[in-house]
Design brief:
The protein has about 475 residues and is an alpha/beta fold. The protein has three domains: about 10-125, Alpha-helical ferredoxin (Fumarate Reductase Iron-sulfur Protein, Chain B, domain 2); about 140-240 and about 395-460, FAD/NAD(P)-binding domain, CATH 3.50.50.60; about 240-390, FAD/NAD(P)-binding domain. About 35% of the residues lie in helices and about 15% in strands. It contains 17 helices and 18 strands. It has helices at about 15, 30-35, 45-50, 60-65, 70-80, 85-90, 110-125, 155-165, 180-185, 195-200, 220-230, 255-265, 290-305, 325-330, 400-405, 435, 440-460, and strands at about 10, 25, 145-150, 170, 210, 230-235, 240, 255, 285-290, 305-310, 335, 340-345, 355-365, 370-375, 380-385, 390, 395, 430. The strands form five sheets. It has a five-stranded parallel sheet with strand order 5-4-3-6-18, sandwiched between helices. A hairpin with a 5-residue loop joins β12 and β13. α4 (about 60-65) packs antiparallel against α5 (about 70-80), α4 (about 60-65) crosses α7 (about 110-125) and α8 runs parallel beside α17. The termini are far apart.
Amino acid sequence: MAVKNRVPVLERPVEERIKSFEEVALGYTEELAVEEAKRCLQCKVPTCVEGCPVGIDIPRFIKQIAERNFEGAFKTVKSFNYLPAICGRVCPQETQCEGTCVLNKIGKPVNIGALERFVADWAYKEGLEAQDGADVKIQEARDKKIAVVGSGPAGLTVSSELGRLGFQVEIFETLHELGGVLVYGIPEFRLPKEIVKKEISDLKNLNIVLHKNTPVGYAIDPRELLETYDAVFIGVGAGTPKFMGIEGTDLNGVYSANEFLTRINLMRAYKFPEYDTPVYVGKRVAVIGGGNTAMDVARSALRLGAEVYLVYRRTEAEMPARRAEIEHAKEEGIKFMLLTNPVRYIGDSNGRVVAVECIKMTLGEPDESGRRKPVPMPGSNFILEVDTVVEAIGTEANRFLLSQFPGLETSKYGYVVVNEWGQTSIPKVFAGGDIVTGSATVISAMGAGKRAAQGITRYLLESV
């Protein structure tokens, strides 16, 4: 059977987007969405669902789009996933639902992510609320209270699941805005903050209490949570930055990706002086790393007027970033320096970085990650003149916070140890997301939140 080509998503032109933080992908119109939805084969055994960490009934909502039943499609998606507009924009569908689509055997898979985004955007434009319709039911109130620490994807998901079941949920967030990595880690041009606010605001319909500016471990003693609530969920992510630890890391102008992106995304540094927190971006910026965060940093620096070099120690084929993000970065003019690694940062007499000494690399045998290990090439050192460096090489757990939960078991890497339902070594404490797995995806964290909600429900009902 002939299958039409995938319908491309509308995008903002390159020459326009490199000067703006406005969203790059513009999504589907109604006509384009229907056309793309009609490519779905409605498989009797939908392998796409197996690839979705939150188990969305994908064939059903796509069929509803093809029939122009957009409201029905929204209710279908929302009954499985409380954050569809977010997931439709930032989930790595190519390795999850779309990666298991049978159309991969004869062409490109159905653009499931863009269709999910379409139904959410359409519904919000039409003013639909999450509880509209029979697919999202809220049960009668229960007398059990759950504290959720952290308002990232895992915390929001566990809260929405428990809120629907009628439990009393309170979310404690350290920052002045809710959303965790969704607001401080992902730039506006990939995920507009108004979208995040809209989907989080729907939680209020579930009678969930939101506490901003409330760092657990400082403003609230974790032992107080253990005494006051029937269960506690830890979903604080893994936001402590890693550094390469090479000479010159302490120079002015050397940032972690966390600080750089937080200043830009959460504190709107790109709108300084309209907003109070500036960020220094020189004329030439070196970004170290090859993941999605590195792409976000590089593309943000570009939009702030810099010439940007992406320094990565392997080849493009080994880059962990999504293909779409790599292609967008290349289209926008990011200069890729592959098989290259920094060995030291060089400063001037004022302690400010002025250059990076790099070394060329070659690939050896595969390491524990399955990727070929980069090996330095002796004598290949060279100098790259820059005035800003941003390291985007990963993050790790906040060990200080976890140490304040007496008896909480952690791994040798500092992450929380849980069972299949997210339950920790403290029976009433559950955890999920990056604080358990290390840095992963938004949808993986949401899947962990769903499992933990099931675990908490079982725990609370069995303890009655």
